[in-house]
């Protein structure tokens, strides 16, 4: 089947906690175009993982998810568990953030990799085994026989993260969503994962969503970048524009505090409760009275969109 864009409308994710309602994703409407690598950036807790995981309905039952997510003509929010399970891996591959929670501790690496191939493709067990070996090699593993027979606890965190990358792409999905695929890896292994993502983009699919804290990589690898803050998208655009010429005060701070020396770093969170319409108000160094009570929609700017009163 030819892949389509991923079209999300009015997506919200909330949790009822003992401290009250927590809104992890706040009414996000966004299209992730096919044949485009979109990066999602934003500080910890901004809703990146919740957004990425909602697309494949991977969130736990305590998450209250509303809104729509259309892909290949179907609203993922309306599919049965069996239907969405079929889409995972075969149509949309997911590379999760945390190997400890995502690999099965009682199955060998070979079982886990081969099983995901046999579930989603029609190849024989022998062919699956060969494919697994070749992917392990491509992802920088050396003693393939030993790795195949190992259990996740016998491998390092970095090795398990690479196994998750393989599971995410081995069935040649049309779309790939990767949630911090390099988390916890040292520079050398990060390079291997990045090289493999570049290979995936070149050889398999360039329809990708990459959630990352690595702004340098995002700028180099992604075609477009989406910036999230407190569950909302605050800026999106071509990656070169977002990285080199950020427009939202939050993006300016985020990039200024990491890769671009000389830009104004971001203000720390303010202890005062933020009651203004703009969620960034208390930290913003460009705020004005308009930001307090006018609803702030995403506005078109050259090469992208931004949610900020300064661009009215
Ligand atoms: N199970 C949960 N119960 C309550 N709140 C939750 C739950 N899961 C996530 N949240 C809240 O939702 C918000 C967004 O979480 P999310 O994991 O999407 O952030 P993130 O941008 O991926 O952060 P990170 O970069 O650290 O991975 C967080 O503020 C978090 O506190
Ligand atoms: Ni996350």
TrEMBL record:
EC number(s) per entry: 7.2.2.11
| Pfam families, per database record | ABC_tran, oligo_HPY
Which GO molecular function entries does the Swiss-Prot or TrEMBL record give? ABC-type nickel transporter activity; ATP binding; ATP hydrolysis activity
Question: Where does the protein principally reside?
Answer: membrane
What GO CC annotations are associated with the protein? plasma membrane
* Catalyzed reactions: Ni(2+)(out) + ATP + H2O = Ni(2+)(in) + ADP + phosphate + H(+)
Tell me where in this chain the ABC transporter domain is found: 6-255
Q: Keywords for this entry?
A: ATP-binding, Cell membrane, Ion transport, Membrane, Nickel, Nickel transport, Nucleotide-binding, Translocase, Transport
Q: Which InterPro entries match?
A: AAA+_ATPase (IPR003593), ABC_Ni/Peptide_Import (IPR050388), ABC_transporter-like_ATP-bd (IPR003439), Oligopep_ABC_C (IPR013563), P-loop_NTPase (IPR027417)
Topology in the lipid bilayer is annotated as: Peripheral membrane protein
Q: Which GO terms describe its biological process?
A: peptide transport
| Lineage top rank: taxon | Bacteria
Tell me the compartments it is located in.
Cell membrane
How does this polypeptide assemble, per the annotation? The complex is composed of two ATP-binding proteins (NikD and NikE), two transmembrane proteins (NikB and NikC) and a solute-binding protein (NikA).
Which family does the record assign?
Belongs to the ABC transporter superfamily.
Alphabetical list of NCBIfam families matching this protein? oligo_HPY
Matching entries from PANTHER family are given as:
NICKEL ABC TRANSPORTER, ATP-BINDING PROTEIN, OLIGOPEPTIDE TRANSPORT ATP-BINDING PROTEIN APPD
| Record-given protein name | Nickel import system ATP-binding protein NikD
Q: Which organism is it from?
A: Vallitalea guaymasensis
What taxonomic classification does the UniProt entry list for its organism?
Answer: Bacteria, Bacillati, Bacillota, Clostridia, Lachnospirales
């Amino acid at each position: 089947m030819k892949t389509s864009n991923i079209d999300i409308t009015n997506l919200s994710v909330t949790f009822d906690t003992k401290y009250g309602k927590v809104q992890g994703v706040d009414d996000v409407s966004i299209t992730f175009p096919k044949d485009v690598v979109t990066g999602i950036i934003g500080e910890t807790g901004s809703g990146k993982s919740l957004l990425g995981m909602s697309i494949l309905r991977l969130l736990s039952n305590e998450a209250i998810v509303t809104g729509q997510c259309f892909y290949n003509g179907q609203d993922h929010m309306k599919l049965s568990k069996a239907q969405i399970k079929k889409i995972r891996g075969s149509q949309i591959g997911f590379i999760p953030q945390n190997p400890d929670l995502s690999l099965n501790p009682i199955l060998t690496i070979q079982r886990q990799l081969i099983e995901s191939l046999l579930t989603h493709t029609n190849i024989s067990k022998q062919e699956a085994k060969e494919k697994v070996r070749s992917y392990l090699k491509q992802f920088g593993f050396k003693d393939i026989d030993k790795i195949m027979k190992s259990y996740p606890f016998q491998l390092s965190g970095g090795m398990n993260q690479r196994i998750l990358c393989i599971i995410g792409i081995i069935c040649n999905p049309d779309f790939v969503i990767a949630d911090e695929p390099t988390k916890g890896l040292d520079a050398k292994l990060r390079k291997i994962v990045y090289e493999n993502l570049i290979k995936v983009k070149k050889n398999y699919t360039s329809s990708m969503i990459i959630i990352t804290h690595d702004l340098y990589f995002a700028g180099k690898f992604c075609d477009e970048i989406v910036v999230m803050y407190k569950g909302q998208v605050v800026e999106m655009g071509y990656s070169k524009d977002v990285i080199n010429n950020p427009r939202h005060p939050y993006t300016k701070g985020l990039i200024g505090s990491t890769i671009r020396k000389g830009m104004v770093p971001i203000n720390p969170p303010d202890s005062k409760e933020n009651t203004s319409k703009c969620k960034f108000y208390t930290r913003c160094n460009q705020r004005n009275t308009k930001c307090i009570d006018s609803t702030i929609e995403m506005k078109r700017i050259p090469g992208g969109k931004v949610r900020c009163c300064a661009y009215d």
